[in-house]
Amino acid sequence: MPSTLLFRPTLYRASHWLALVCRLVAGVALIGLLAVTMADVSTRYLSRLTEGAIALRVSGSVELVSYLMLFALLAAMAANVEKSQVVVEAFSHRLPQAIKNRVQGVFLLGFMALGLVLFVGLLDSAAAATRHGEVTQDLRLPMGPIYQLAAVLSLLLGLRSAIHALLGMIYAAGEEAAHGE
Length: 181
Prior knowledge:
- This protein is mainly α.
- 75% of the residues lie in helices and 0% in strands.
- It has five helices and no strands.
- It has helices at residues 2-49, 61-79, 89-92, 97-132, 143-171.
- The chain starts with a helix and ends in a 10-residue tail after the last helix.
């Protein structure tokens, strides 16, 4: 039993550090998304104000925003997976909290499977994009690294889901203690 007592804090620490990495990625992606959007809107407005005399444009802004949004969403999902469960009170309101936490752990296995399926699929897409020299439509950026980053973020979703599934199923630990918040 002592080894399982040491295993729980290790899982919490691993989850905490993975969540911090995911929050950092999500934050950087959101700031980048905001910067691209603001620059695009500002340059369009400046062009309109000067009746086209100053015609600066942010090339590929829609493309940049879409990929930054992908990274932000995947990272945010991975960072907050243990808080993402919707409790249906009609079915669980009379259950003890420990059982609710164990059921949540089982449901998190689904998120783990989702993260791993996305990871494998995106890695396959990255390999195919690299093999065929696939690039983005506007900026001509290679698609391989974009798919690879999305695959890593999907893997983090799967890992954090697995960690919290174990914590829920084995220790009946809920999300309230996930990061010591």
